[in-house]
Amino acid sequence: MAFIRSHCELSPTIGIILGSGLGEFADTLSDKISIDTSQIPHYPISTVEGHQGRLVFGSINKVQVLVVQGRTHYYEGHGIAEVAYVVRLMSKLGIKLLIVTNAAGGVNPDFKPGDLMIISDHINFMFKNPLRGLQLPSESRWTDMQNSYDSKYSEIIEQVALRMNIPLKRGVLFVSIGPTYETVAEVKMARHFGADAVSMSTVPEVITARANQIKVVGISCITNLATGLGSAQLSHDDVTDVARRVTSKFQRLLTEVIAVLGKKLEKDSRNTTI
Fold first, then answer.
1. Where are the domains of the chain?
2. What is the mean pLDDT of the chain?
């Protein structure tokens, strides 16, 4: 915290974690202050192409935000608690709402590459939990994961998208540790379990946010059809390429969403203190 405060005195209320190929959104902030995560003590280094490794403070439509431009993944060799480090940092900075984004493979046959999906829930097939071990004073031990992706805030995002004529899907995210893509049999299993999309991230950050009383909403960019649902061989280059192709739509949506949710947070805060 001391290192962050020595570089930035802003007090953002919204945190955003950008997924593969979506990092350009951080460049749209006003009055940016960027901190290279490699300089932050104890911060795990991101090694994946498309994840630059920066914390970017700034504002969107006068709403102060903190954007994570370069998520760290469990499959990179980090411990599960290290993957959640940035969310614990956000909690100390006073973040009230976390917007998680990711690139995901479509399991639902109605999905196609380029679609955006509101995450309604997740299935944790990482079999790892960042709350395991010594309980931190700020965190709940037995965290209730019902409504993990806040339904009221998610509905606001859907209303914004409808107003902007940006189609949105809604679905359940199935997350495994990676870095291999799922097999055909695993994709069939995920669909049987109720999943609409598959990914290799997001769950550790969401669990940690909820343990710290941070509200969460999530948006997946469907970058490919999951294994067995299409003829193309999967590659990370293709994933990031599709994500970049929807950048304009994603940025327009997220910019307006932040403006609306920022006002909602401010209103909720006033009502809480009355």
1. 6-129+144-273
2. 90
Is 212 an active-site residue? Answer: no
The percent of residues above 70 in pLDDT, for the chain, comes to: 94
Report the 3 state secondary structure along the chain. CHHHHHHCCCCCCEEEECCCCCHHHHHHCEEEEEEEHHHCCCCCCCCCCCCCCEEEEEEECCEEEEEEECCCCHHHCCCHHHHCHHHHHHHHHCCCEEEEEEEEEECCCCCCCCCEEEEEEEEECCCCCCCCCCCCCCCCCCCCCCCCCCHHHHHHHHHHHHHCCCCCEEEEEEECCCCCCCCHHHHHHHHHCCCCEEECCCHHHHHHHHHCCCEEEEEEEEEEECCCCCCCCCCHHHHHHHHHHCHHHHHHHHHHHHHHHHHHHHHHHHHHHC
Looking at the structure, give the CATH architecture of the domain made up of residues 6-129+144-273.
3-Layer(aba) Sandwich (3.40)
Query: pLDDT per residue over 214-246, tens digit each?
Result: 999 999 999 888 877 765 666 777 777 777 788
Q: Which of 20, 34, 154, 176 is catalytic?
A: 20
Distance of CA 211 to the CA centre of its chain: 16
Catalytic site includes residue 78: no
For the cut 50, the answer to whether the pLDDT of residue 274 exceeds it is no
Q: Which of 7, 242, 265, 209 is nearest to 105 (CA)?
A: 242
Among residues 254, 214, 216, 201, which one has the least CA distance to residue 89? 214
From 91, 148, 176, 224, the catalytic residue = 224
Active site residue 231: no
Active site residue 192: no
Segment 7-36, tens digit of pLDDT: 777 789 999 999 877 888 898 999 999 999
